[in-house]
Amino acid sequence: MNTRRLAPVALAVAVLLGTTGCSMISPQATTIEYAAADGVNIPASGPLKVRNALFVADESGVAANFLAAVVNDTDKTEKLTVSIDGTTKTVRVPAHSYVSLGFHDVEPILFPALNAKPGTDVDVSFQSGDGESVVYSVPVLDGKLAYLADFVPES
pTM for the whole thing? Predict the structure, then answer.
Protein backbone atom coordinates (compact mmCIF):
# COMPACT_ATOMS: atom_id res chain seq x y z
CA MET A 1 0.00 0.00 0.00
CA ASN A 2 2.75 2.48 0.89
CA THR A 3 4.39 2.03 -2.50
CA ARG A 4 1.16 2.96 -4.27
CA ARG A 5 0.91 6.19 -2.31
CA LEU A 6 4.55 7.16 -2.83
CA ALA A 7 4.61 6.50 -6.58
CA PRO A 8 2.44 9.54 -7.57
CA VAL A 9 4.41 11.79 -5.20
CA ALA A 10 7.74 10.57 -6.62
CA LEU A 11 6.44 11.09 -10.16
CA ALA A 12 5.26 14.63 -9.34
CA VAL A 13 8.65 15.50 -7.81
CA ALA A 14 10.49 14.09 -10.86
CA VAL A 15 8.30 16.08 -13.27
CA LEU A 16 8.69 19.25 -11.20
CA LEU A 17 12.50 18.98 -11.06
CA GLY A 18 12.71 17.98 -14.71
CA THR A 19 10.76 20.99 -15.92
CA THR A 20 12.30 23.63 -13.65
CA GLY A 21 15.84 22.34 -13.29
CA CYS A 22 17.14 24.21 -16.34
CA SER A 23 16.69 27.57 -14.68
CA MET A 24 18.77 26.40 -11.75
CA ILE A 25 21.92 25.88 -13.84
CA SER A 26 21.45 28.24 -16.82
CA PRO A 27 22.01 32.00 -16.62
CA GLN A 28 18.89 34.05 -17.23
CA ALA A 29 19.33 36.13 -20.38
CA THR A 30 17.29 38.99 -18.95
CA THR A 31 19.85 39.54 -16.18
CA ILE A 32 22.78 40.07 -18.58
CA GLU A 33 23.51 43.77 -19.21
CA TYR A 34 24.35 44.83 -22.75
CA ALA A 35 24.16 47.92 -24.96
CA ALA A 36 21.10 47.58 -27.15
CA ALA A 37 22.49 50.07 -29.67
CA ASP A 38 25.29 50.52 -32.20
CA GLY A 39 27.66 51.94 -29.60
CA VAL A 40 28.88 50.72 -26.23
CA ASN A 41 28.18 51.71 -22.65
CA ILE A 42 31.33 52.63 -20.77
CA PRO A 43 31.74 51.10 -17.30
CA ALA A 44 32.25 53.44 -14.33
CA SER A 45 34.51 56.25 -15.47
CA GLY A 46 33.79 58.52 -12.50
CA PRO A 47 30.50 60.22 -11.65
CA LEU A 48 29.45 60.59 -15.30
CA LYS A 49 27.79 57.77 -17.25
CA VAL A 50 28.75 57.38 -20.91
CA ARG A 51 26.15 55.59 -23.03
CA ASN A 52 26.08 54.46 -26.69
CA ALA A 53 29.62 55.66 -27.44
CA LEU A 54 30.73 55.27 -31.06
CA PHE A 55 32.77 56.88 -33.82
CA VAL A 56 31.53 57.68 -37.31
CA ALA A 57 34.23 57.88 -39.99
CA ASP A 58 34.49 57.96 -43.76
CA GLU A 59 36.00 55.00 -45.64
CA SER A 60 39.57 56.25 -45.10
CA GLY A 61 39.06 56.35 -41.33
CA VAL A 62 41.45 59.27 -40.89
CA ALA A 63 39.01 61.61 -39.15
CA ALA A 64 35.99 60.56 -37.09
CA ASN A 65 33.21 62.11 -35.05
CA PHE A 66 32.63 60.80 -31.53
CA LEU A 67 28.97 60.40 -30.55
CA ALA A 68 27.67 59.50 -27.11
CA ALA A 69 25.16 60.41 -24.44
CA VAL A 70 26.83 61.62 -21.24
CA VAL A 71 24.66 61.61 -18.11
CA ASN A 72 25.37 63.56 -14.93
CA ASP A 73 23.31 62.50 -11.89
CA THR A 74 25.36 64.61 -9.45
CA ASP A 75 24.67 67.99 -7.83
CA LYS A 76 27.47 69.82 -9.67
CA THR A 77 28.73 70.31 -13.21
CA GLU A 78 31.20 67.60 -14.15
CA LYS A 79 33.75 67.25 -16.94
CA LEU A 80 34.34 64.14 -19.05
CA THR A 81 37.80 63.67 -20.55
CA VAL A 82 38.05 61.49 -23.67
CA SER A 83 41.61 60.56 -24.72
CA ILE A 84 43.00 58.64 -27.70
CA ASP A 85 46.73 58.30 -28.38
CA GLY A 86 47.63 61.64 -26.77
CA THR A 87 44.66 63.58 -28.19
CA THR A 88 42.37 64.72 -25.38
CA LYS A 89 38.91 66.29 -25.65
CA THR A 90 36.57 67.38 -22.86
CA VAL A 91 32.81 67.73 -22.41
CA ARG A 92 31.12 69.66 -19.60
CA VAL A 93 27.81 68.27 -18.36
CA PRO A 94 25.57 70.38 -16.08
CA ALA A 95 24.27 68.93 -12.81
CA HIS A 96 21.24 66.63 -13.08
CA SER A 97 21.42 66.76 -16.86
CA TYR A 98 22.81 65.03 -19.93
CA VAL A 99 24.61 65.94 -23.13
CA SER A 100 23.95 64.02 -26.36
CA LEU A 101 26.99 64.58 -28.55
CA GLY A 102 25.77 64.99 -32.12
CA PHE A 103 22.13 65.63 -31.17
CA HIS A 104 19.98 68.47 -29.80
CA ASP A 105 22.25 71.19 -31.27
CA VAL A 106 25.34 69.70 -29.59
CA GLU A 107 28.19 69.05 -32.01
CA PRO A 108 29.91 65.67 -31.99
CA ILE A 109 33.56 65.66 -30.93
CA LEU A 110 35.84 65.55 -33.97
CA PHE A 111 39.03 63.50 -33.75
CA PRO A 112 40.88 64.68 -36.90
CA ALA A 113 43.60 62.00 -36.74
CA LEU A 114 41.80 58.91 -35.46
CA ASN A 115 43.23 56.66 -38.20
CA ALA A 116 40.77 53.81 -37.66
CA LYS A 117 38.72 52.39 -40.50
CA PRO A 118 35.03 51.59 -40.11
CA GLY A 119 34.51 48.09 -38.75
CA THR A 120 37.35 48.34 -36.24
CA ASP A 121 37.44 49.27 -32.57
CA VAL A 122 39.51 52.01 -30.94
CA ASP A 123 40.82 51.91 -27.36
CA VAL A 124 39.61 55.11 -25.71
CA SER A 125 40.33 56.43 -22.22
CA PHE A 126 37.40 57.95 -20.29
CA GLN A 127 37.71 59.87 -17.02
CA SER A 128 35.38 62.16 -15.06
CA GLY A 129 35.38 63.82 -11.66
CA ASP A 130 37.94 62.25 -9.35
CA GLY A 131 37.31 58.78 -10.79
CA GLU A 132 40.06 56.67 -12.29
CA SER A 133 40.55 56.49 -16.03
CA VAL A 134 38.82 53.60 -17.81
CA VAL A 135 40.06 52.30 -21.19
CA TYR A 136 37.36 50.75 -23.35
CA SER A 137 37.09 49.61 -26.99
CA VAL A 138 34.69 51.82 -28.95
CA PRO A 139 33.41 50.80 -32.42
CA VAL A 140 34.07 52.83 -35.56
CA LEU A 141 31.11 52.89 -37.96
CA ASP A 142 30.61 54.42 -41.40
CA GLY A 143 27.77 56.52 -42.79
CA LYS A 144 26.06 53.75 -44.75
CA LEU A 145 23.25 53.65 -42.21
CA ALA A 146 20.91 56.56 -42.97
CA TYR A 147 20.82 57.87 -39.41
CA LEU A 148 24.63 58.05 -39.26
CA ALA A 149 25.20 59.61 -42.71
CA ASP A 150 25.10 63.21 -41.36
CA PHE A 151 27.87 62.43 -38.85
CA VAL A 152 30.55 61.42 -41.38
CA PRO A 153 33.24 64.12 -41.14
CA GLU A 154 33.80 66.17 -44.29
CA SER A 155 37.04 65.42 -46.10
Answer: 0.78
